[in-house]
Amino acid sequence: MSHVNPSVPADGGGRSLPNDSGGSLFRQHKPQQGRTTRTSTRVAVGILLSWGSYFLYQQLQVFEGDEGWRLLVTAGIPMLFFVALGAVAWWCVFCNRSASEFMIATEGEMKKVSWSDRKEIIGSTKVVILFTFLLAALLFVVDLFFQWFFSGLGVLKT
To answer: What is the mean pLDDT of residues 7-12?
Structure first.
C-alpha cells in the first residue's frame, strides 16, 4: 500500500495544491465566497449576543457586594459572555470548513431561486386572506350547528 500525499496532484506534476489544514486558528476559509450569507449570519449572531449579554446584565443586578466587585460581576460576566461566544461564532462562520462550505453553498442556491414578482405575491396574498376568512366563517357556522345540536340534546346549556 502506498502513501498518497494530498498536496501533490495525482498526475505527478510538479505543482502542489494549497493545503488548507494549516494556518492560524482564525484564518478565514474561502474569504471571498459567501459574503452575503456570512455577513447576515454575523449580524444575526451579533444581535443575539447583544440581547443575551443585556439579559445576563439585567439578571446579575441582584448581586450585592462592594461597588468594585459589583461592577466587575454585573458588567464583566456579560462582556466575557459576549467576547467568548463571539469568538466561537466567528470561528464557526468564517474559519470552520464545513460551516463555511455550507454557507457558500446556501448563497449559491439562493442565487438560483426564481423569485416571484410583486403582482404575483399580491395576488397570492389576496387568495390566502380570502380563504382564511372563508374557513373562519365555515368554522363559525359549524360551531353554531354544534351549539344548536348539543343544546337540543340537553348536553349544553346556553
So the answer is: 46
Cell 454585573, residue?
Answer: 74
- pLDDT value at position 111? 87
Burial (CB count <10 Å: 0-12, 13-18, 19+), residue 103: buried
**Torsion sign over Cα 98, 101, 107, 113:** negative
- State which amino acid sits at residue 65: G
Q: Which amino acid belongs to residue 13? A: G
Instruction: Round the average pLDDT of the chain to a whole number and report it.
Output: 82
Of 101, 87, 77, which Cα lies nearest the Cα of 26? 87
Is the pLDDT score of 51 beyond 80? yes
- Residues in CB range of 20: below 8 A, 6 or more apart: 29, 97
For residues 9-36, b (16+ Cβ closer than 10 Å) or e, as one string?
Answer: eeeeeeeeeeeeeeeeeeeebeeebbee
